[in-house]
């Protein structure tokens, strides 16, 4: 079995990692931790290219560290895992990675946005559930 888990630096993502850690997965299951680096700005040449590249590098490093932390946590619980950060919209990155890797399952956390918040921010979970080439498990955080 091949599982992709989408992570960011949110409590919702940590809940998804915890869920996967507790799971009873078949022997030989491989887990790929993916953190998508969402472009926050257009890469337009306005004479500040080095600043744009520097900001991109900082974001990429942060997402690599987030993925590496989740990977370490999963490995410590006995899972076979690897991790990577990929530049792009998380909705597209997760769906495309699942197709490329021939994943059996995508696991993601739900931020629980509704109404205007969902409209303005979009919903990674909704898009992935609708477009993924495999099953998708959306993990909700326990209510406090």
Outline the secondary-structure elements.
Elements lengths: L1 E5 L4 H12 L7 E8 L11 H28 L3 E8 L2 H12 L3 E5 L5 H7 L2 H8 L3 E5 L5
Parallel strand pairs: 1-2, 1-4, 2-3, 4-5
Question: Key terms for this structure?
Answer:
5 helices; alpha/beta; 144 residues; 5 strands; globular; Rossmann fold
What is the CATH domain class? Alpha Beta
Strand content: 15-25%
| CATH fold assignment | Rossmann fold
SS element count, helices: 5
Q: How many angstroms does the end-to-end distance come to?
A: 33 Å
Return Rg in Å.
16 Å
Q: Tell me the domain tally.
A: 1
Biggest sheet record? 5 strands, parallel
- The general outline is globular
In terms of structural class, how would the helical and strand content be classed?
alpha/beta
What's the average pLDDT?
Answer: 86
Strand line-up in the sheet with most strands: 3-2-1-4-5
Q: Can you characterise this structure?
A:
- This protein has 144 residues and is of the alpha/beta class.
- It has one domain (2-139): HUPs (Rossmann fold).
- Helix content is 47%, strand content 22%.
- A five-stranded parallel β-sheet has the order 3-2-1-4-5, with helices on both faces.
- Strand 1, helix 1 (11-22) and strand 2 form a beta-alpha-beta unit.
- Helix 3 (90-101) runs parallel beside helix 5 (124-131).
- The longest helix has 28 residues, at 49-76.
- The N and C termini lie far apart (33 Å).
- The relative contact order is 0.23.
- Residues 113-121 have low confidence and may be disordered.
Task: Please provide a brief summary of the model.
This protein is an alpha/beta fold. 47% of the residues lie in helices and 22% in strands. It has a five-stranded parallel beta sheet, sandwiched between helices.
